[in-house]
Structures are given as C-alpha cells and as structure tokens.
Amino acid sequence: MKCKKCNNGVLINDLCNDHFIEYFENIVKKTIKEYNLIEKDDKIIVATSGGKDSITILYLLNKFYNNVEALCIDEGIKGYRSKTLLTLKQFCKEYNIKLNVYSYKKEFGHSLDYFMDLISKYNKIKKLNIKPCTICGIFRRYMINKYSTGFDKSATGHNLDDESQAILMNLLKNQIPILARFGPLTGISNENLFVPRIKPLYFLSEKEILTYSYLKKFDLFYTECPYVPQAFRAEVRDNLNEISKSKTNEIKLNIVNNFLEISKKLKSKYKDTIQINYCTICNIATNKKICNKCELIEKINMVKKECKL
Ligand SMILES: [Zn+2]
Ligand SMILES: [Zn+2]
Question: In order of start, what are the domains of the chain with their CATH numbers?
Fold first, then answer.
C-alpha cells in the first residue's frame, strides 16, 4: 500500500513516515489555534513524567515556542520515578530545556512509598480505603498548581484515549459538574486563580503518539507506574478499546466531539455553582472549607497518631 500523499510505503493512517509526522504536528498546531490554547509570547510549563505523552508535548511546544520549561514531580516511587527522571534529565539536556524538579519528600516530608506503606497498615486495621492514585492525584495537582505560578499556561500530555475514557467515566458515574471542567482548556471559572491547563494532544490517540515518539527516536522509559491504576478506569479503557478495535480513532473522536459540542453549555451552567473559598489552613483557592491537600495531610497525621508511628 502506498501513502495517500506520495509514493512511499504506508506506516500508519494511510501515511508514510514523513507524512505521518507532518499530519501529527499539524493536528497539534490546529488544536492550539482552534481552542486558543497559547499566545505567541506565553511562558509555558509542561508537566512531565518522562513518558511518551509528556515527552512528545514537551518536544513539540519547545519546537513551536520560545518560552518553554519542564516540571517534574518526584513522588518517590522506588524503581520507577528515579529511572523516568534520568530519562527526562537527558532529554531536557539534549533539547536545552530547563527542568524543574520538586519532590513529595521536600514538600510533604515523605515519599509516596512511605505514605502508601503507612496507609496500607492502617487500611488493614480500620478498613479505610485510601488508594495510591488518590494521594498522588491530590498531592501532584497541588504541586503542579503551586509550581506553575508565574507561567501563562501549564501543559499536559493528555491524549484522545485519556479524554474519551474520562468523559465516559464521568457520564457513567453521573458526575456532570466534574465533566463540565474537561476540554482542551481545563476549568470553568477559576482560570484567574490557577494557571490555565492546556492539552494540545487532545485529538491524538495513544497509538499515534507512540508512533510519533518512535519515529522521533525519543529515548523513553516504557514501564508503567507500579501502583495499579484505578480499577474502574481500566475497565472503561478495556471496553472502549474493544468497541473501537476496527475503527481506529472514530469512536473515541465521536465521544470527545460530542462532548465538545455541549461543553460550552455545561461550562456556563455549572459556572455559578462553583464557589471559590480560600482554604482555612493554607489559604489556597478551593471550593471547600479545607482544600483536598490539607484534608489529606490531616488524615495522614491522624493515621500516624493512631498507629503511633
Ligand atoms: Zn507520504
Ligand atoms: Zn489547604
């Protein structure tokens, strides 16, 4: 089979290597333009894990724009983060990108491994069900918000698979106010409180990103985080992949595009339901009395006390 744009052999999507790269980069540019994600002189920070998605978006934004830095949160996951961090350091050195690393240990006193160890002991005694992804989600988001201050945009490598899964999950769980926050530009009304978060890989699939990073010969670390992902997300992902099997991106794009069709209405409907307070402990913007991060720290301190650790 020949590429639909030239005489070369096909690699993926009826395109040869070179035309696939062109197609891929054009989609990223189009997404940025159509959703107004970036202004020419924006200072951009890219939250990176060292995986293919965040390396790809870091590479592309650094190629297209002048003011790009990388941010990596070191959770302290043994055998995982230290290796991805090494990959990321080499990558940033090669492309001359400033890398900012912040750790749980410095920020919260301990690594994620320590917190998990502590909580799993407590879970056993009290049947309290705190999952590693919950701790990680809350602490990471807090740190990304905190260390993105001073930048105009904070970019992540979320892709079409992540987004279509998340939309379905929120629909299935009847969490429409949470769903309202989704889109290539995240948030509803609090853009002025946090640095706006953007997802330029929104319309590109896992497979396309993998192909792109392979063609670009990015040196990647392919191991997944050792803490198992949320069971429900894995179930939605597997089912969605099964339904989309023979249709490349069509079904996932349909989910995302249908959502985008109604997203303006959702955002304006839920705009007024969000009340911004300031956390009574740390004073950051939150929609509750105490922010998620402080609530989790209080929970962890209670566990420490009860377990006499
Ligand atoms: Zn071609
Ligand atoms: Zn707080």
Answer: 23-306 (3.40.50.620)
